[in-house]
Write a structure and sequence with these properties.
Layout: H1 3-13, E1 18-22, E2 27-30, H2 32-41, H3 59-73, E3 79-83, E4 88-96, E5 102-111
Antiparallel strand pairs: 1-2, 1-5, 3-4, 4-5
């Protein structure tokens, strides 16, 4: 099994959406749960290759994402964004190359067990 296929299987086994976005804010990957969430539940289509701002059009959201990514470029770690209406905590996680440079980021969701 090649490495790319193995990583895809691993990410697809995660029970929450994972959306990887490059530094130009272009969506490059959705795991199976993210495809279901955005395509089936929210009605989007063909998000791969489109701007993350096609989903997040609210000016406040756009500014929050851009500001967070600027912090990630300056070596910030994972950033908590908010708790969703589904009671999921949403984070933006940096993805860095071997030199520590930001190559993109992903939205990570997890059940919020604290109330």
């Amino acid at each position: 099994m090649d490495k790319e296929k193995m990583l895809s299987y691993i990410l697809d086994s995660y029970p929450y959406p994972i959306v990887f976005v490059d530094c130009d804010h272009v969506i490059r990957y959705l795991n199976k749960r993210a495809e279901y969430h955005y395509y089936q539940e929210r009605g989007y289509r063909n998000l791969i290759g489109k701007s993350i701002f096609a989903c997040h059009q609210n000016p406040k959201s756009v500014e929050m994402i851009k500001s967070t990514v600027e912090n990630l470029k300056n070596h910030a770690n994972e950033v908590f964004l908010k708790v969703s209406p589904r009671n999921e905590r949403i984070y933006i996680v940096p993805v860095r190359n071997e030199n520590g440079e930001l190559v993109g980021y992903f939205e990570r969701f997890e059940l919020n067990l604290q109330k």
